[in-house]
Amino acid sequence: MKNQETHQQEIKEMIDAFRNAERWLFTLIQDPTGQRYFQEKSMEVRMLEFAEQIERMQAFMDFCGNPEKSYPSIHVAGTSGKGSVVRLMAGIMKAANLRVGYHVSPYLQVCNEKLIVHDKMITPSEFVALVEDFKGKYQRWLEENSEFEFLKYGEAWV
Q1: Which of 12, 18, 85, 135 is the most buried if burial means most Cβ atoms within 10 Å?
Q2: Best CA proximity match to 100, nearest among 73, 67, 137
Q3: CA 121 to chain centroid
Q4: Pairwise CA distance, residues 106 & 92, whole Å
Q5: Who contacts 86 (Cβ-Cβ below 8 Å, separation ≥6)?
Q6: Are the C-beta atoms of 25 and 156 separated by less than 8 Å?
Q7: pLDDT tens for each residue of 19-58
C-alpha cells in the first residue's frame, strides 16, 4: 500500500494538472469581458462572422478526422430547457442500456461538470487527458493551417 505522503503527493499533482489544463483552456478566451456583444454590427457582418466560425470549426474537425461522426449523437438546441431535455433523454437511453454521454453548458463550480458519461462527471484525470489530447491536435492544426488564427473557447469545448 502507498504511504499517506505518497498518496497526498499524487492527489496534489492531479489537482495541479487539472488546474493547468483548465487554465490553458481559459487562454482560448479572446474576449473575457464580452465587449463583442456591445459592438454594433450589421446582420451581414454577423452572418459573415458566423460563417467563419463554422468554417474554422469544420476545418479543425476535418483535421482531427471528424471524431464526432464515429458515434451516434443528438444535438439539442434552443433558447431554454436544453439541459432538462438532455437529462431526460439521457435517462431514457440509459434505461435502454445504452452508454450515454453529454455536454451541457454552463457549469457551476468545476469545468468537468459539463462532461457527463453515464450519469457521472468525468474524473479530473480524464479531463486532463482530454485537454492534453485536444491541445496536441490543436497546436498541430495551428501549425498546418495558418489561414485560421485560433479556435475560440466555446469552440474548444465542442
Answers
A1: 18
A2: 73
A3: 13
A4: 23
A5: 76, 102, 104
A6: yes
A7: 999 999 888 877 777 777 788 999 999 899 889 888 888 9
Q: Which residues of 70-94 are buried (b: 16+ CB within 10 A; e: fewer)?
A: eeeeeeeeeeeeeeeebeeebeeee
- Do residues 115 and 127 touch, judged by C-beta distance below 8 A? yes
Helix axis angle for 43-63 and 124-144, nearest 10°, is 100
**At which residue does the C-alpha cell 457521472 appear?**
120
Q: What is the pLDDT of residues 95-108, one digit of tens each?
A: 999 999 998 887 78
3-state secondary structure of 148: coil
Number of neighbouring beta carbons within 10 Å of residue 117: 14
Q: What is the pLDDT of residues 55-88, one digit of tens each?
A: 888 988 999 999 989 999 998 988 888 889 999 9
